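Hi P.,

Sorry for the delay on this. The queue was packed all week, but I finally got your sequence through. Input first:
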Amino acid sequence: MFCESMCVVTNRCRPALKSYLPIVTLFAGVVLLVGCGSTAPPSVFKPPSDAAPKTSGETLQYLAKLADPEVVNVSPGKRGNGPVYSVFGKSYRVMKSASGFRQEGLASWYGTKFHGRETSSGEPFDMFKLSAAHKHLPLPIFVHVTNLENGKQTIVRVNDRGPFHDNRILDLSFAAAVKLGFQNNGIARIRLEVVEPVARAKQYLVQAGAFSSLSGADRTIEELVTLTGLNGVVVKTPRDGLYRVRLGPISEGANLQRVQALLESSPYGRPQLFPVN
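Then the structure:
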């Protein structure tokens, strides 16, 4: 683990060391000792190594079919978001906004050496989940990644900083590399595009009547299910003991307007709408 002044945003910094010769690694270790003013861990002086986990063919097939993570609206976290950070004497600026951002270049992947370690965002790195590291994107954020060499695609959650090779733009988890089909090659040419969450339409339950008897509510709901083609439920409210007939849930839009108009033109009259949380 490097000291904060030399590796302020990530405990990995693997890509920056991976291709250095041992003598350069030794020199970097000496610089760390002087810059930190404390004893560097022995691992600083060892050429770093990373590897794929030992997996069966069945596990690789499972990873290749991992479902994309759900793209949700997340605010940039307090950790790993700059605005400027430095790694090995080089400064990097974090983007304030990534809306519409896309980029093409080389991607690499990381695995066992960093599995379980804390990422720059504070989330633990899990090489069996679809995640990635980027030098400039705000954390966390979701990107759609396409392997331009074979057409395979996935969505990943960017929650870490790196890679710190000048010729690479993205460092992917082992699972993402498997899904994109380049875990054996180590590097692939990719295109990444920031994915923004789609706003979900509000949903409502449509109440078409309230009855003092359960039998009356049951008859009504059978008629309404046939009339509208929707699911229905009878709910007894403790406050007044009435049995209320409700349909749905229905997303706002044309279908909801159709059901409202249908009920208003029937003997049931104007329905009440109850939002679904």
